[in-house]
Each structure stands twice: as structure tokens, then as C-alpha cells.
Amino acid sequence: MSATISQKMISTYKMNFKFFVLFFLLSTGEIALPANLICRSPGFEISGLNRTDQFWLREYLDLTRIDTWSNGDADRLRQKIMTTDIFSSVEVSEPRDTKNCSVLISVTEKWTRIPVVRGAYGGGTPLLILGGYETNSFGRLLALGGEVRRYGTMAPGAFFFFKSPRAWQGRGLWGGEFWIDR
User: Fold this and answer.
1) 66, 42 in Cβ contact below 8 A?
2) Which phi and psi angles does 72 have, rounded to 5°?
3) How many whole angstroms separate alpha carbon 157 and alpha carbon 113?
4) Of the N and C termini of the chain, which has fewer Cβ atoms inside 10 Å?
């Protein structure tokens, strides 16, 4: 009987000791992170934005929903930024420590205004097209553009368009066109 009581007492002490250690680690914040987890609640600093709206980029990347940072997250974030096709280079630095979990994102924007000048001659009728478009209008990855077309001696026609190629965090597309032909 005394052996049974001592076994129960030992198991009770072991259980209490486990709870004490767990409570101590939780209260001091010294719990080790899993092997691939670098930090929790990362902050993001974005540099190099001249024409792109920082709020739009944060929303597109869904940075508010990232509550942990693990190994490999930098590559995934870099790839998602590059899919916008408005940056020529992107660098994402891993946080240095678990206490100050700050992810630095450095980007270089590329030229997104494209002029359109085309001409053709066929069947005895010349064609002249002048216009341009911008793939990062208002810094929000909206494509806006227009062209004026002239066929031979006819009155010129015009074409205007707008498009959001990555609406709703990249999950949709919307746009419109307006043609004037005479």
C-alpha cells in the first residue's frame, strides 16, 4: 500500500512540476520556437516605392494576415511581389532575431509607361496608330491606356481601356473598353 501511495505522490509531483515549468516558460516568454519558425507577429518595412501605393502593396500581399515568419517565407513573399510585374528587383531580408521581428522589403520599380507608335501599309491604305498605356496607374496596378487610329483618309477612331489584372489580392480580373470609330 505504501508503495502505491508513493507512486501516486511521485506522479502528482511530476505533473505539478510540468505545469510549473510550462507556466514559468510562458510567463517569461522563453519558449523556444519550432525549428523553422523565426518569429511571431512580424512587422514589415517597405522601401523603394516611388509611384506604387504602399497601402495597396500591403493589401495585395495580405501582410496583416501574416502572424508568424518561418524559413522560406522570404522567398514566397519575394515571388508574390515579382508577379505584379512592376518591380525590376525585390529583396526580402529575414528578421535578425525573435524579439525584434522586422522584415525589410526593398524594391526597385521599373518603367511602366509604354508608348505605342505603329504604322502599316497594305492594300493601298495606310494605317497609323499613336497612343500609350500605363500598367501601374495611381500606384495600384491598374492598367489605363488609349490609342488613336487612322485608316487612310478616314476620320480617326479612338480606343480607351482600363483593367485591373490582379483585383481582389490577385484572385480576379476586371476591366472595360471604349471604342469610337467613325
Assistant:
1) yes
2) 95, -15
3) 22
4) N
174 with 168: CB under 8 angstroms? no
Distance between CA atoms of residues 81 and 59, nearest Å:
12
- Backbone φ and ψ of 43, nearest 5°: -100, 155
Q: Is 14 helix (H, G, I), strand (E, B) or coil?
A: helix
Lowest mean pLDDT among 32-46, 74-88, 91-105: 32-46
C-alpha–C-alpha distance, residues 16 and 9, integer Å: 10
Maximum distance among all Cα pairs of the chain, rounded to whole angstroms: 113
Look up residue 144 and give its three cell numbers: 489605363
Say what the pLDDT of residue 132 is.
95
Nearest to 74, CA basis, from 98, 105, 46, 48: 105
Backbone angles phi, psi at 167, to 5 degrees: -70, 155
Does pTM surpass 0.85?
no
CA neighbor of 44 nearest in space, from 57, 32, 53: 57
Q: What is the pLDDT of residues 40-75, one digit of tens each?
A: 767 888 999 999 999 888 888 888 777 777 778 888
In this model, does residue 113 exceed pLDDT 60?
yes
